[in-house]
Amino acid sequence: MTNSIKNAIVIGATGLVGQCLIEQLNSLAECEKITVIVRRQIAEFNPYKKVEQFVLEDFLLLNDQDVNGYSHAFSCLGSTIKKAGSKEAFYNIDFEINAHFADLFETTETHLILVSAMGANAGSPIFYNRVKGELETYIQKLDLYRFSIIRPSLLLGERNEKRFFEDVSQKLYRRFSHWVPNSFKYKPVTAQQVAHTMVEAAQMQTQKIEIYDNLHIQNA
Question: Semialdehyde dehydrogenase NAD-binding domain location, by residue (predicted)?
Fold first, then answer.
């Protein structure tokens, strides 16, 4: 059975995965409208006829009416402690905004698809992984129609902003990638693969909650 992505709402659309997701959604014949929540108008989205930009400086101001009537909701929203500026700011982005976004779909018939992280664990001593795990745990307790968790490893691709660790890791991976077997669960994946997995989950998932691990994403 295939679930039609008739209309979608997306946060985090300007990031590496988000841009790939918008491109893939826009190419779907079944998809009639894609609403992207942005803090300012993004010129790169103008060529996409199905995309409508909803400018909102504070995503926490999103309300029930703003998200009403969508078949699918996608969150590619995420940051790093360095980019956010502090652990508190990172938490406000990665947990608070994503949790608020999820809250809006409780008791609706909207399928929520979230990009998390491979190491997500609410009990992790690593702050980044712990926040991702706490978010997953929080959302799973909500009364959602359907929820997908996408857990990629290192992402390959050119970001708009510099991330030193990821940049170094990508360079090392490209140099030694021929030695990395396809069965290696930590193998880096592309933003296109992650976006494809999100679309696949939206179309094919029948379980109320399902986790798509890095091995699954590798085969996308």
Answer: 8-84
